[in-house]
């Protein structure tokens, strides 16, 4: 069975009980509409912690005014079954009022530097919302560790920076991106795609794979790799490019040359119809 809590006191009572039994506590923050990528995060968490908490909360403050907050898929019963199957002990499913008791005058967390580029440039305020809700979840659950997906590469960097800067005693684990058989990164937003768009969406992975192939073949010019990303993405009909970047995997600063011990990551965002998708791939280890 998986227990469900909607209040801060309810979560803390369960977590305190588990701690009393000597179990380590792990947290997997999600927005629900769970897929096999989320399941992998929960399973990984179960390997590291005796008591796994999954939070399901569509966080309003990380959505822009014209984004998909109201239509974001909400599949709570199916999510519970997946949590149970993957070994979660507790699902925390709060309302916005529980998470934001002061409403719009809530205290916020800013992580400058990493938050304004890439996703942050396209979605102003997004990472302020993310950092804020994650710190709140950390304070409510007080986990020993928390698991995030590499799928949201910039997000896990923002969280790591926040935890480091604020001395938050939570160990952050990043789990590799889980993909469909053809390479498409799993995403709750893939549910928005019709069958034709689902095929078109593969353009993101195809572009990343082309970029990695070029680097493996000796390409060292980051501009040339950016061009490969753009050209591959734009050759897929129905894809509208938002950004295609080659960046330092630690700082997200654009890089000039590949190699020299820098971990380089290719990051892309694109629209397929009215659905905005992101993906990324390490170019060098
Ligand atoms: P979300 O529900 O989309 O906010 O995602 C919750 C967590 O699952 C985040 O840490 C995501 O990075 C992670 N996640 C989402 N999709 C995937 C995926 N395809 N593979 C691995 N982790 C993922």
Give a quick precis of the structure.
This protein is of the alpha/beta class and 285 residues long. It has helices at residues 8-20, 36-48, 76-86, 96-99, 119-122, 126-141, 153-165, 195-200, 202-216, 222-235, and strands at residues 3-5, 25-30, 51-56, 90-92, 145-149, 171-175, 239-248, 264-272, 275-282. The model has no long low-confidence stretch (mean pLDDT 97).
Count of DSSP H/I helices: 10
CATH class of the largest domain: Alpha Beta
Can you tell me the CATH superfamily of the largest domain? HUPs
Derived from helix and strand composition plus strand pairing, the structural class reads alpha/beta
Sheet with the most strands, sense and barrel status: 6 strands, parallel
Enumerate the distinct ligands: adenosine monophosphate
Strands of the widest sheet, in order across it, are 1-4-3-2-5-6
Poorly predicted tracts of residues? none
> How many structurally independent domains?
2
Any idea of the CATH topology of the largest domain? Rossmann fold
**Proportion in β-strands:** 15-25%
Order of helices and strands: EHEHEHEHHHEHEHHHEEE
CATH architectural arrangement of the largest domain: 3-Layer(aba) Sandwich
**Helical percent range?**
25-40%
Whole-number mean pLDDT: 97
Q: N-to-C terminal Cα separation, in Å? A: 40 Å
Shape: globular
Number of strands: 9
Which value, in Å, is the CA radius of gyration? 19 Å
């Amino acid at each position: 069975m998986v227990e469900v809590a909607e209040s801060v006191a309810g979560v803390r009572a369960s977590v305190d009980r588990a701690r009393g039994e000597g179990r380590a506590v792990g947290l997997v923050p999600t927005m629900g509409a769970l897929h096999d990528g989320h399941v992998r995060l929960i399973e990984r968490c179960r390997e590291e912690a005796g008591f796994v908490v999954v939070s399901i909360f569509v966080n309003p403050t990380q959505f822009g005014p014209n984004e998909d907050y109201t239509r974001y898929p909400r599949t709570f019963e199916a999510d519970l079954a997946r949590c149970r199957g993957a070994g979660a002990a507790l699902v925390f499913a709060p309302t916005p009022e529980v998470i934001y008791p002061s409403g719009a005058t809530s205290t916020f967390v800013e992580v400058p530097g990493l938050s304004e580029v890439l996703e942050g440039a396209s979605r102003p305020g997004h990472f302020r919302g993310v950092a804020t809700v994650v710190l709140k979840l950390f304070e409510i659950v007080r986990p020993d560790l928390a698991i995030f997906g590499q799928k949201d590469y910039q997000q896990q960097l923002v969280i790591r920076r926040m935890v480091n800067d604020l001395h938050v005693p939570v160990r952050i684990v990043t789990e590799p991106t889980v993909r469909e058989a053809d390479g498409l990164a799993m995403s709750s937003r893939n549910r928005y795609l019709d069958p034709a768009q689902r095929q078109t969406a593969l353009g993101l992975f195809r572009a990343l794979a082309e970029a990695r192939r070029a680097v493996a073949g000796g390409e060292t010019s980051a501009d040339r790799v950016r061009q490969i990303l753009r050209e591959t993405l734009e050759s897929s009909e129905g894809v509208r490019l938002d950004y295609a970047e080659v960046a330092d995997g630690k700082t997200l600063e654009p890089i000039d040359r590949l190699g020299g011990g820098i971990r380089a990551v290719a990051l892309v965002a694109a629209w397929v119809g009215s659905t905005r998708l992101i993906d990324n791939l390490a170019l060098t280890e």
